[in-house]
Structures are given as structure tokens and as C-alpha cells.
Design brief:
homodimer; about 180 residues; alpha+beta; Nucleoside Triphosphate Pyrophosphohydrolase; 2 domains; three-stranded antiparallel beta sheet; 12 strands; elongated; NUDIX_hydrolase-like_dom_sf (chains A, B); hydrolase (chains A, B); hydrolase activity (chains A, B); ADP-ribose pyrophosphatase (chains A, B)
Chain lengths: ~180, ~180
């Protein structure tokens, strides 16, 4: 199987929204048949694991429309078109948590919903946090709360952390800490 | 902050695709302002960590349109509307890998892209695999390959596994194995 066996014959514009653009692709498959694929295009996002001087992780509480509930997540934000994910992480850390850092280390990146969406989330660990100023726009309502890594791992096992970037970020950070200890 | 401070005033239907439905919600925020939110609705999916008699994990290679490339992932499939995720996992395991199992254990579930999409992926560990028959529809082209857990962890650290369900599933499975050993 080779990717050249799959050919995009056409792309139809469906919907331009605020953070997503939806297109419909007609693909030719290896058996020469044609098939339609919906594709949600997204600029991507950056998430941050902000580690304070006591080793706690700053988490954010916010309302999420898809869940219709308040969630607890890693701070994160959407990339501007073509933006460097590290720049986005530095900005979103300060805007959402009110702490600044120039000590960010890339941890992991991944496609969130690879079946139908091209969004990539880039996750960074931020150390040496300096108090700055939270800067939310008037549609953002965010509470910041510190949690120990142990407590967050327990919350993952209890099903209390519910989104891919938060779970993946915390599990990858645990592994990163353990590897760097040895 | 309470979820009742966020009210959906209206929902506009935008696009019904094969696996996604797109709507646009007008929400009232705690400051009484109105804001538009795009929402991608999805039935959800089930993914499987199929563990063979030697402890290897059966992975699937397939073409992915959003990436325009061949990827290596955990086997997975989309839920029928209202389908029990466990039923879906049992079906997709057999269809995609050609192995059947009745020994599935729930591992973890999560929202893939919680900012704009309601898709939940449910991940199960499948043991006691029995050879059956791969059953792909004529738009599916899938190769099945066994990998050791150690190799998959290394591939995550090298950035060679790229999607949320595969990375989260493998990291959560490693933790599950380690916890059950002790």
C-alpha cells in the first residue's frame, strides 16, 4: 500500500467557520473506485503544562460547548494561521493563567481526530513561571487551579479528566519526568 | 463559574456529512454577551488494543486523508448512532484485524477535540484473540502488523505515532500493565 494509490480528484468548499473550515474531498481509491471524505480543517493548537515552583501543574476550568459543562484542562489555545506553535504556547500560557515563562520544552504533538480532521495539538512543558497578568477576551471565562501530578494521574484513572490533550499531556509528562530522573 | 451561566440561545444546522454533522450555536455568556460557536457532531468511536499470545499489539496501517499519508494506528471504527461502544469495538476488531475476542476490558475514553467537537473515543484492551476473518468494505485498505509495547513507546517518543487515540491508548495501556503487575 502506497499513498500514491490514493488520489484526490476534487475538493468542495462546504463551510468557513470561526475556527474550522469544512471541505468535502472526492478521492480515488486503489481499486479505482471513488469515495467522498469530509475533512475539518483547523489551524492547530498549542497546550502547556505549566509547572510551578512546588512542582504543581496549573490547570484551567472553563465552559465547553461540545460537553455543555465546565471542564478541567491544560491551558491551550488555537494557532493563528501559520503561527509557530511555541509562540502560541508562550502567549496562551500568559493569557490564560497569568503566568509567563521563557523556559518551554516541547513534549509531544498529535492529530486529535485523524479520521476527519487535520488539527494538530503541540504540547510544551513550561518551567520557571513568573507572575504576569491574565488577559482574557470578553468571551473567555477561566479559573486557574494548581494540581499535583499524582492527583492528576488519579483523576485520569477516575475518568475526571476527559479530553485528549490533557490526558495525553499528563501521561507523557509523567513518562518524561520518570525518564529524566533515571 | 457555573454551567448554567452559559445558555444556548439557538442552533443553526450547517452541514450533514457522512460521519460529521456541523451546527453553529449562539450562546449567551455570563456577561450577557452573545457569541457564536461552531460544533462538529460525531457519533463517537471505539478503538482496540488487541494483545496477541506473545504480548504484541496488533496495529493497522491505512491511508488517512487529513494527513495525506499512510499511518500506523490502533484499530478503530465509528459508532453507529446510539451503539454501545463495546459492541462497536468487538465488531471493528474483527473487521479490521481478522481476529475476534470476547475478552475486552475498558481502558479509557476521552473527547478528541473538546474545543469544537463532541466525538468521544472509547478504548478497550482485547485479550485471547482468535483467528477469524478480516472484513473490510470496498473503501477500506488496511494492513495489520504486530508491535511490542516497548517498540510502540519508543515510536511515541520518536514522533512516529501521530494520533491521539493511539498515543493515549498506548500510554494508558503501559500504565495499566504496570499497575496490574504490582
Amino acid at each position: 500500500m502506497d499513498k500514491s494509490d490514493f488520489k484526490r480528484l476534487s475538493r468542495k468548499q462546504i463551510y468557513q467557520g470561526k475556527v474550522i473550515n469544512v471541505v468535502q474531498d472526492t478521492m480515488q481509491l486503489p481499486n479505482e473506485k471513488e469515495s467522498l471524505f469530509d475533512l475539518v480543517q483547523h489551524n492547530g493548537a498549542a497546550a502547556i503544562i505549566p509547572v510551578d515552583s512546588e512542582g504543581n501543574i496549573l490547570m484551567v476550568e472553563q465552559f465547553r460547548n461540545p460537553v455543555n459543562d465546565i471542564t478541567l484542562e491544560l491551558p491551550a489555545g488555537t494557532l493563528e494561521k501559520g503561527e509557530d506553535p511555541l509562540e502560541c504556547a508562550i502567549r496562551e500560557l500568559e493569557e490564560e493563567t497569568g503566568y509567563a515563562s521563557n523556559d518551554l520544552t516541547f513534549l509531544i504533538k498529535f492529530y486529535t481526530a485523524i479520521g476527519f480532521c487535520d488539527e494538530i495539538i503541540h504540547i510544551y512543558v513550561a518551567n520557571h513561571l513568573e507572575p504576569s497578568k491574565q488577559n482574557l477576551d470578553d468571551s473567555e471565562f477561566i479559573n486557574v487551579k494548581p494540581y499535583s501530578l499524582e492527583r492528576l494521574i488519579k483523576m485520569i484513572n477516575q475518568g475526571k479528566l476527559i479530553d485528549s490533550k490533557t490526558i495525553t499531556g499528563i501521561l507523557a509528562y509523567k513518562q518524561y519526568i520518570e525518564t529524566n530522573k533515571n
